[in-house]
Amino acid sequence: MTKLSVNVNKVALLRNSRSLGIPSVTRAAELALRAGAHGITVHPRPDARHIRATDVHELAALLKNWPHAEFNIEGNPFEPPLLDLVRAVSPQQCTLVPDDPAAFTSDHGWDLARNGDRLRPVIAGLHGLGVRVSLFMDPLPEAMTVAAAIGADRVELYTEPYARAFGTADQIAVVTRYAEAARSAQAVGLEVNAGHDLNRDNLAPFLAEVPGVAEVSIGHALIADALEFGLAATVTAYLQVMDNTRT
Questions:
Q1: Annotated active-site positions, please?
Q2: CA proximity to 82, closest of 68, 99, 67, 65
Q3: What is the pLDDT of residues 120-162, one digit of tens each?
């Protein structure tokens, strides 16, 4: 069964637009978990534009009350504050993302030919903390062997290209690349996550074509839907989409 991790970055972004402390990131996370979400994802950035260090600590404390839910912290390991926060709270999963601090949002996966040797000791250090490591990757089947060789446990397939192709003549060709990448990853012992611009419309077709997706991390679209339907109802709707898809 594919699990849903709710990314609460956009809740923090709205909170940060005023100095009132609302909406509460931890309250949003709790509502998502009560509605059945399997985990919470955050992506703290150096400029703290959304998630702050205090959010990470407060969410870690909240998740201690949810023993079956996972905390996924993602970000660039070569930029602060990612690794310091991971060391402080020991999440179940750390997703390493090669985003530039000035980037609007994550927009590409790792080039392991250039960065594999740098990532290897980072991954080993995270394993020493008992943290599962996922690498944010483009759907390149040939890169999965390298990801496994440097010690990754999972890859998160970057799905914005799929989302852009959804509903166009390119959809089948694009999703086929993701299916091939997933099979290549699984063939070398990696589990497969997916995330970025997945939504209620494109999620089911993706899961129907890409085998064995362990987890999807969804934030922007889910929080946008929550403005219309409410957060708990939105989480339920995403879970229903996933439950109706055989993976």
A1: 43, 74, 196
A2: 99
A3: 999 999 999 999 999 999 999 999 999 999 999 999 999 999 9
CATH number for 133: 3.20.20.70
> Which pLDDT belongs to residue 245?
82
Among residues 27, 14, 3, the alpha carbon closest in space to that of 227 is found at 14
Tell me the residue range of the domain where 189 lies. 3-243
* 200-216: pLDDT as tens digits: 999 999 999 999 999 99
Question: 24 with 55: CB under 8 angstroms?
Answer: no
CA distances in angstroms from 101 to 50, 78, 85, listed in the order given: 13, 10, 17
Domain count, the chain: 1
Strands (E), the chain: 3-7, 39-42, 70-75, 93-96, 132-137, 154-158, 191-195, 213-218
